Amino acid sequence: MDNKPIIIVSGEPNSVFLEIFFKSLKSNKYKSPLIIICSKRLLQEQMKKLGFNFKINTIYKTFSQFNKLNNKQINLINIDYKFINCFEKISNKSNNYIKKSFDVALEIINRNKLTKFINGPISKKHFLKGRTLGITEYLAKKTKKGNDVVMLIFNKKLSVSPLTTHLALKNVHKNISRKKINTHVKLITNFYKINFNKKPKIAITGLNPHCESNFTDCEEDKIITPAIKKLKLKNFKVDGPYPADTIFIKQHLKNYDVIIGMYHDQVLSPMKALFNFDAINITLGLPFIRISPDHGPNSSMLGKNQSNPQSLTQALKFLDN
């Protein structure tokens, strides 16, 4: 990747993101300039509370001389934030602030043809209610990409990808299609080719327990198996469908780079059991590479200075290469 700046939206103000951002800056050096979009008052109050002491370089959204930036100071685009205390409980009071942060980030990325973007965690209950199912879908809608995006939870040893993202289980079977499986495999394969010069080996799970059911026209027979057969004919390295209860055992894991599951927790739960927070959430199919550290707001830990920055550090290192 190039050394163009990494644009960072701090996200939910009452979260641990700024704590892990400070820790990532203190413990690592990055070649790419980091630009964080955040409230200056929030940044200063969090620094004081947590005992960090970084200088702040306030820049403006019309700024374009990125070659003059470095990471000796925090490069900040200030979003006014005067309406709540920065150590309150998460609520919808911060919705307009979060929306404005994303709008400014997308404007800067589009105007300057930037390609590297990180966002801190967002409350699905408050900010996303009535908007979209998740930030993956929110950004897809904002960039007019529709359903042609993929959530990839990436780790060098093993990555996972849910075919459907933040859906209620009762709606999952309605949103599985051959087209979605095809799009998933193509975008993931292209990502590995561009970034690692390799054709990934991909395992695909079934939907039903043991990949079987006692009714006719089950999803494995009607959708998943035919999609896999067609992808094999096009020389994609795909296998399956595999039962989700056995694909994550060690003897199988060593054979694959990526496991695609049919729904969110089918693959994210074992992924977190295996790697904890040593993973990054990459959205494929957007006009830029979007990464979200694999943790939530965790507001119960706000101000305690005990949060692990590993996921954000991994995200920054990935984009900084």
Provide a descriptive summary of the structure in words.
The protein is elongated and about 60 Å long. It has helices at 17-27, 40-50, 95-112, 135-142, 169-172, 178-196, 219-233, 250-253, 264-275, 310-320, and strands spanning 6-9, 34-38, 56-59, 74-78, 116-119, 150-154, 159-162, 202-205, 238-242, 258-261, 280-284, 289-293. The longest helix has 19 residues, at 178-196. The strands form two sheets. It has an eight-stranded mixed beta sheet with strand order 3-4-2-1-5-12-11-6, sandwiched between helices. It has a four-stranded parallel beta sheet with strand order 7-10-8-9, sandwiched between helices. The model has no long low-confidence stretch (mean pLDDT 87). Helix 6 crosses helix 7. It folds into two domains: 1-149 and 285-321, 3-Layer(aba) Sandwich (Isopropylmalate Dehydrogenase), CATH 3.40.718.10; 154-277, Isopropylmalate Dehydrogenase. Strand 8 (202-205), helix 7 and strand 9 form a beta-alpha-beta unit. It has ten helices and twelve strands. The chain is α/β, with parallel strands linked by helices and 321 residues long.
H and E string: EHEHEEHEHEEHHEHEHEHEEH
How far is it from the N-terminal to the C-terminal residue, by CA?
6 Å
Main sheet strand line-up: 3-4-2-1-5-12-11-6
Number of strands: 12
Tell me the helix content.
25-40%
What is the averaged pLDDT score?
87
Please work out how many helical segments DSSP would assign: 10
Tell me about the largest β-sheet: 8 strands, mixed
Question: Any idea what the radius of gyration is?
Answer: 20 Å
Q: What is the CATH topology assignment of the largest domain?
A: Isopropylmalate Dehydrogenase
Structural class: alpha/beta
